Amino acid sequence: MSVAMPGPKAEILARRGEIAKALSRIVPGEGVITDPDGMRPFETDGLTAYRQMPMIVVLPETVEQVQRVLRYCYDNEIRVVPRGSGTSLSGGALPLADGVLLVMSRFNKVLEVDFENRAAVVQPGVTNLAITRAVEHRGFYYAPDPSSQIACSIGGNVAENSGGVHCLKYGLTTNNVLGLEMVLITGEIIRLGGKHLDSEGYDFLGLMTGSEGLLGVVTEVTVRILRSPETARALLLGFPTNEDAGRCVGDIIGAGIIPGGMEMMDSLAIQAAEDFVHAGYPLDVEALLIVELDGPGEEVHELIERVEAIARDNNAANIRVSQSEEERANFWAGRKAAFPAVGRISPDYYCMDGTIPRKALPKVLHRMKEMETEFDLRVANVFHAGDGNLHPLILYDANDSDQLERAEAFGSAILKLCVEVGGVLTGEHGVGVEKRDLMGEMFNEADLAQQERVKCAFDARQLLNPGKVFPELHQCAELSRMHVHKGQLPFPDIPRF
Question: Which regions form coiled coils (predicted)?
Answer without folding.
Answer: none
